[in-house]
Write a structure and sequence with these properties.
The structure holds two protein chains of two kinds. By secondary structure, chain A is α+β, with helices and mostly antiparallel strands. Chain A is built from five helices and five strands; from the N terminus they run E-H-H-E-E-H-H-H-E-E. In chain B, about 45% of the residues are buried. The chains are: A alpha+beta, B alpha/beta.
Chain lengths: ~140, ~450
């Protein structure tokens, strides 16, 4: 059985409207009848990834593959890349700018939350080229 | 009665306005008329508000229904008080009700006041109820959560609604005072909206309805105008305090709870949905209580009201200015907390589920996306569905035919006749290929 493939573009620049992609994905997952806990975790991971892409990379896209046994979410951007992944994974560490912080973001919990709510997480990144964060959630 | 919202086919033009306004995508246009998918309708009344032809209405019970009972009690929603101009006191409305067919009056605001007192005396134990607690007061929101946010069902407070409590107490009181059997007493709510009419007949939280019917504020307002002018001194008196009456507008219920709670008071379906999504994602972790109203400004904005919600809010504030803040004592006046517990568990209604079999659901979802990619994405409504995605879903689920999309049909026709220009099948305003002489967004 081929996984259901969903693609959500994430627009850069609009931090206030961010969250639309995770909201659309949630509705799709509900229509598939996935367990509520799985939907919640996928939605939280996607939301954090979306916010990261808007704050740091001027947008990107999320590719979601819903299989029978797991959901794979790939968040792909062509932003500045992450120079120190270890530091980025630390709770409280953030490179978000002033505007993002003024809007209440930049608490430094994005990547740590994604790790907490997923079953597997990997980051591919190259400074100057972009970043892909892949998370897996078992159904 | 399953739903109060009803379409009057004779007036409906099939203009698609209501279809686009429905927050649960419950409306389709078929054979030139709007029709409602019953399982998706939450009776919020958005369609009623948006219809330009007054072709949708909220049905409610007729006052002639009082004739079926030997003794009738009116349960006016406090929103009723705010409908009248130049009103000096709530007592005139209550007295007026005794002159239009009711034998007695029991204020819904008394029910709210008692529930507020209970909430203050017995703040919810944080452990059993997941935070934030969500109010059960708005029946449209309750239904919305049942169909779209089942994970949040356990957040909803387990107490019955003010009008339900008022109905139980009113009937008990009437039985005591008249000696009649409970079934001989007619207990009727006077309500501001379609959702309250439906809830009176088919409550989500009770096994059996406690009301005999729901009359609309609009109907009673017209009947009360003349009798009220003839009242010299009212003999029927309000026993509600500020706290109870304030449930009529958004924030009233939340403000009357324990002062140490952090709460949100949200009005309007769009905002309600947005906040529920955020709660579901755990993005509002520091909130204890959430009050949600489907209508603008809360119940004052209901579709069966007469007055503008902002004006009636102002009038209500003026009417209650001299009332005590709290006029109800739950322990003294009710006593048994079991009386206010819902006896029916709120059930998830999976109306959006594509298929109960996961594999079948996934295949359908893939087919829906495949079809959607080939649709023009104009959300024009000509197919009778609120969006291209909804149309694709309708096709795959067998509710519509691929050829219902007029743009697809014309594209195929043009392709068959060998016409090269892909834009040619679009109506002129949508054609993109010819470069505009000036900025097309400003004419």
């Amino acid at each position: 059985m081929e996984p259901v493939k969903l693609v959500y573009p994430v627009e850069g620049g609009d931090l206030i409207e961010a969250g639309e992609a995770s909201s659309k994905m949630k509705m799709t997952l509900k229509k598939l009848g996935l367990p509520p806990d799985v939907i919640r975790r996928a939605s939280i991971c996607m939301y954090e990834g979306e916010i990261n892409m808007v704050i740091h990379a001027d947008g990107g896209r999320a590719e979601v593959d819903v299989g029978m046994d797991e959901i794979v979410i790939r968040m792909i951007d062509q932003g500045p890349g992450i120079p120190d992944v270890g530091k980025a994974m630390e709770e409280g560490f953030s490179t978000a700018g002033d505007m993002a912080r003024d809007l209440g973001f930049g608490a430094g919990m994005g990547l740590p939350n994604m790790k907490r709510y997923s079953d597997d997480m990997s980051i591919e990144t190259k400074v100057g080229t972009g970043t892909t964060v892949t998370i897996r959630i078992k159904i | 009665m399953e739903h109060s919202v009803t379409i009057e086919y004779a007036r409906c033009r099939g203009c698609t306005t209501c279809m686009k306004s429905c927050p649960t995508e419950a409306i389709r246009v078929r054979r030139g008329k709007a029709t409602i998918l019953k399982e998706r309708c939450v009776d919020c009344g958005e369609c009623i508000r948006s219809c330009p032809h007054k072709a949708i209405r909220a049905s409610s019970d007729s006052i002639s229904h009082l004739q079926d009972f030997r003794y009738n009690v009116a349960l006016p929603d406090p929103v009723l008080y705010g409908q009248f101009q130049n009103l000096d006191s709530i007592d005139f409305v209550l007295e007026g009700l005794t002159r239009v067919g009711f034998d007695a009056v029991f204020e819904t605001a008394k029910g709210s006041g008692l529930l507020s007192d209970y909430a203050r005396r017995y703040p919810p134990d944080p452990d059993p109820l997941p935070r934030p607690a969500i109010s059960s007061a708005c029946p449209a929101v309750l239904r919305l959560i049942r169909i779209r946010f089942p994970q949040l069902l356990e957040h909803i407070t387990s107490t019955i609604t003010p009008v339900e409590l008022a109905a139980i107490l009113a009937r008990q009181k009437a039985v005591l005072e008249t000696g009649l059997a409970p079934g001989e007493i007619g207990v009727f709510s006077i309500v501001p909206c379609s959702a309250q009419v439906t809830a009176a007949h088919t409550p989500d939280d009770l096994q059996q309805p406690v009301l005999d019917g729901a009359l609309s504020i609009r109907d009673l307002y017209l009947r009360l105008l003349t009798p009220m002018k003839q009242i010299g001194t009212p003999r029927t008196f309000s026993t509600a305090g500020k706290a109870g009456v304030r449930w009529a507008f958004c924030g009233g219920e939340a403000n009357a709870r324990s002062g140490s709670e952090r709460f949100l008071a949200v009005d309007g379906m769009d905002s309600v949905i947005r906040v529920l999504e955020a709660i579901e994602d755990n993005r509002v972790p520091d909130v204890d209580f959430v009050e949600l109203s489907a209508c603008t400004q809360g119940c004052v904005g209901g579709c069966l009201t007469v007055e503008d919600p902002f004006v009636s809010t102002m009038r209500l504030r003026h009417l209650i200015r001299n009332l005590p803040d709290f006029a109800s004592n739950f322990d003294a006046e009710v006593g048994d907390p079991g009386l206010i517990q819902a006896d029916k568990e709120l059930e998830f209604a999976p109306v959006f589920l594509l298929d109960t079999d996961r594999t079948a659901a996934m295949e359908k979802m893939t087919a829906i996306h495949e079809l959607e990619r080939r649709l023009p994405g104009l959300l024009c409504g000509s197919c009778g569905a609120p969006s291209c995605h909804a149309f694709a879903e309708d096709v795959i689920l067998g509710r519509a035919d691929r050829s219902d999309c007029i743009f697809q049909v014309r594209a195929r026709m043009k392709a068959m006749t060998g016409n090269e220009d892909p834009d040619d099948y679009l109506p002129t305003p949508f054609r993109r290929r010819k470069p505009p002489d000036s900025d097309p967004t400003h004419t």
